[in-house]
Amino acid sequence: MTRARTLALLVLVFALHVALALRFEPASVVFGPDPIAAIDYDTHYEQTVRALEAMRESGRTWAYDPHLLAGSVSGAIFDADTKAHELFTIALARLGVPPHRGYNLFILLAHLLCAPILFAAARLFRLTLGAQTLATALGSAIWYFDAFSHWVFWVGMISYGLASLLCVLAIALAFRWLAPAEEGGRRPLHLGALAGLLALVHHVHPYSFFVLVVPLAALYVRAWKTLSRGEHAGLVAAAALTVVANAWWLAGALAFWHYILDSSFYLDATPAYLVYDWLGFLKEPSTTGVLAARTAFRTVAMAAGVGALLSWRRAGDRRYGALAIALGVLFGAAYFGGLLAPLRQVQPYRFALPAMYLAAIPAAAFLVSTLAEVRSFPRAAQALFVVAAVVLAPRLIRDALYFLPEWVPRHTRALPAPPPNINSSIAFGAIQWPEPFDFSHGPIGPDAHDIAKFVREHDDGKSRWLVEWWMLGERLAWATDAQILGGFRELNLAHSDANFFRRHEHGDAPERDELRRYLDRYNVGWVVVTNPTPAIELRTDLLELVTTVHYMRVYRTRRTPSWFEGDPRNAAATVRARTNHLEVRGATGGDLVLRYHWMETLACRPGCTIDRAMLEGWPDRVGFLRVRGAPADFEVYNSYVIPKGPRPLVARVKASQ
Predict the structure, then answer these.
(1) How far apart are CA 199 and CA 238, in angstroms?
(2) 8 A C-beta contact, residue 363 and residue 345
(3) Under a CB-based contact definition with an 8 Å cutoff, are residues 454 and 549 in contact?
(4) Which of 460, 364, 342 is nearest to 129 (CA)?
(5) What percent of the chain stands above pLDDT 70?
């Protein structure tokens, strides 16, 4: 193929990628009135809203957030994978762009960058123009048509998806800079680009460190003897720049690290998943994602990538060592990490994503060279090649159509009416053929808008809302000013003790009095239930059904709301909660305990002090706010002063985990 035709094909690949990106995130959604909100996106938007509020007030992106989980640390630990997203949104907000639109634009940008990043990485690995084009096309196909990749971007792991692509580019840049000068290596431009990229990618997602540390270290060790002192110093400077550039958020994360809990809930594949993925068999959705196991494009990249590595090894090509180590480490961590407790803390199946993108590069080189030589194959080999293509094509097409449901052929003839169901079995005639699900993002539906409207209209600031469905809890936390108990159940912070449904997923507390104690401890005035939870919905002694909003049942608790432990006279006092502030009016004064989580940086004014109260009755590892010497009207605020020296209360939290 001529260079002109190859360039035209490359332009077509980029155009198709843009079309898929706009199908994933339609312009009507990106530029609509709401943030992209689905599954994890609700969590990340709530974090972004708090970061924006904190930045406007204090110039920092972390805060005390009283809107969620009875007061929690926001922006210091759990949102470490949202830093670049937050900064992007904050920067656009300063230019007058509404926060939800800036938030959406980052998501669209992450999609659009996939093709140019893979193209640049393929160039850095010295592929031919045809192979660069195929690598871009195969990587784009993996991005959209592989189940895990599509799930990552659809479910809301947007930063990790972008970081995975940027990590591939970082490996390619490191390979190119460390190459001998006669192969285009050791150029200052490449080292500068690598240093800047490393600083950026760790802002996008901190797990970039685990993706990159072994491949980059291996490249460095291989080139050690060929580097000058200045070149060694340049790499050290790049690493130092990465640490310094990210120190601003790392300091906050380390200051509150003692709240971290176990993180090994998801994505812990074992070697058996190599077979499951190859067969396209969905074993555990919590391990590989909730989508059907569409893995054909990934399998092609892995198989052809191995073919390239074997060919390069025989030819003594430097790319063999770099990519063999990187792919071996990433795929090894993805499929064997579930066997290792330390790796389970970083959800090791995540490593499959950068691995499959990286595999697209050697795979493209192998496929282009193989296709160019097909005519020279023996007839038997040519026939075998044709048979393999015929067998493979339907699986690739089926995988693609799974994510393009409008192209799936529909049946036009109705099935026969089912016979009488006399034996309680499902008769053939009763089989239904549901429409394929469209895994692209759409606008927020009327159900979510209506429940948010109900909460806004009925929330008087006197109590909290316990929300059973975790995604709805996160959404109400950013869509309203209500104080929510709920959200992401597997939140790996001790503050999640405030979520009743984390401890009792179906509301089935073993002790009958436990629910009453919980409602009092966290001052719950309302309960919103989405999924059937009869254990709690039958507690009519504590809950009164008020209304149903679509499929959501809203209950009011049968208790007098109060933000204070103890003295019932404080039930009349008011608390106005906003980010970093609790404004109390009309309290009895003296020593009081507020039903809000304690945090080390909180202070009190005028003339009062804060310490930590560990209360009996409901297990909470964070503790609550004890105010000493309080006047009738006072304010608890985030001083942003992180205590130094020994912290015995921290040890107490850690000991109880």
Answers:
(1) 8
(2) no
(3) yes
(4) 364
(5) 95
Q: What is the pLDDT of residues 437-466, one digit of tens each?
A: 888 999 999 999 999 999 999 999 999 999
Q: How large is the average pLDDT for residues 195-210?
A: 97
Q: Do residues 324 and 256 lie in contact, with contact meaning Cβ atoms separated by under 8 Å?
A: no
Q: Out of 240-244, 410-414, 472-476, 575-579, which region has the weakest mean confidence (pLDDT)?
A: 410-414
User: Could you give the 3-state DSSP secondary structure of residue 314?
Assistant: helix
SS3 436: coil
Helix/strand/coil for 524:
strand
Is residue 544 classed as helix, strand or coil in its secondary structure?
Answer: strand
Residues 108, 29 contacting (CB under 8 angstroms): no
Per-residue model confidence as pLDDT tens digits over 248-274: 999 989 999 989 988 888 899 999 999
300 exposed, middle or buried (CB, 10 Å; 0-12, 13-18, 19+)? buried
- Would the CA dihedral through 589, 591, 596, 600 be positive or negative? positive
Buried b (16+ CB within 10 A) or exposed e, 626-640: bbeebeeebebbbeb
Residues 6+ apart with CB under 8 A from 213: none
> Which are the contacts of 235, defined by CB distance < 8 A and separation ≥ 6?
191, 220, 227
Contacts of 136 (CB under 8 A, 6+ apart): 10, 13, 14, 17, 115, 118, 119, 122
Between CA 435 and CA 211 the distance in angstroms is 38
Cβ contact 122:361 at 8 Å: yes
The alpha carbon torsion through 217, 222, 223, 229 (nearest 10 deg) reads: 60
